[in-house]
Amino acid sequence: MALKQWGFNQRRKGQDMELTAKSHSVRLSDGNSMPLIGLGTYGNPRMTPKGTSYEAVKLAIEVGYRHIDGALVYFNEHEVGQAIRDKIADGTVTREDIFYCGKLWNTFHSPELVQPALEKTLKTLQLGYVDLYIVEMPTAFKPGDTFYPRDENGKYIYHETDLCATWEALEACKDAGLVKSLGVSNFNKRQLELILNKPGLKHKPVSNQVECHPYFTQPKLLEYCREKDIVIVGYSPLGTSRDASWVNLKCPPLLLDELLTSVAKKYKKTTAQVCLRFNVQRGVVVIPKSFNPDRIKENFDIFDFSLSEDEMKAIEGLNKNIRFVELLMWSDHPEYPFHDEY
């Protein structure tokens, strides 16, 4: 397959191909735009000191980030929303400048719970709408106040819902003006097709947020989503922590890779910056999570160099088809997405 280094520009409808810190958005199929780099805001709620998310988001906006990726299940949307509102209040940005992605958690898949879940996010953020709202996982859990419901034996309690019915409830949220664009996360091709082939589909998913980095380049899913005009948003674009409780440690640390290190040296950049630039040049949106001020700045500093076609091909060749984030604790769920090839 010929390298589609700038393939996403076909979708950008003739916009300037030059990516800059101020202008690096990809056009979505519904006419809205999404910045190619965003700040991920997940932090273990038990370990993250109060105020950390607030400071990180505030700094990110000052640095130039305009895309913030969050979720109700991160338990920090109140801090994220406060940071966004404070940067609007001090004149750094307008609400229209910011692209916020929120997520529908597994316990809210029942159609009657979808809008209340989104409204809870809006109330927590204290914003009138979100720019993108996505189904975080195709795996429904038992509805209720517990985000991770388990039985007396510690087994997760699943729930049978129809992804198409969940999607219809999301469409109603868009029609009501609570969200600008709709998307999904961790969906495989079969699950995407369920939505795309739904009778009476009003609003198609504009994006699919999945793990994506040089060791897991997602070539088949990327190709399929390009054909359907669905943007891939890459989480864990720098690999992940080495926490054995949820990370597949068979995959070696991405940022120590020899090829990536040598390319980084050539451009006087870090391996993290090379990983991010690689995906951005493929039209894959990246949402590196960091609460470290230096890294927040460093991760955004990827617009003053570009990788050659040969370098892009070499980095694509690093693909090991191994996930860091396997979520094996839910692998017995009927809609667990990672049993399929893509």
From TrEMBL:
PANTHER family from the UniProt entry: ALDO/KETO REDUCTASE
Pfam entry (one): Aldo_ket_red
Site (Lowers pKa of active site Tyr): 103
PROSITE patterns according to UniProt: ALDOKETO_REDUCTASE_1, ALDOKETO_REDUCTASE_2, ALDOKETO_REDUCTASE_3
Name this polypeptide is given: 3-oxo-5-beta-steroid 4-dehydrogenase
GO molecular function, a single term: Delta4-3-oxosteroid 5beta-reductase activity
Active-site residues (renumbered): 74 (proton donor)
InterPro entries xrefs: AKR (IPR020471), AKR1D1 (IPR044483), Aldo/ket_reductase_CS (IPR018170), NAD(P)_OxRdtase_dom_sf (IPR036812), NADP_OxRdtase_dom (IPR023210)
Domain of life: Eukaryota
UniProt GO BP: bile acid biosynthetic process
Limits of the NADP-dependent oxidoreductase domain: 37-319
Name of the encoding gene: LOC106521816
Family assignment from sequence similarity: Belongs to the aldo/keto reductase family.
Biological source species: Austrofundulus limnaeus
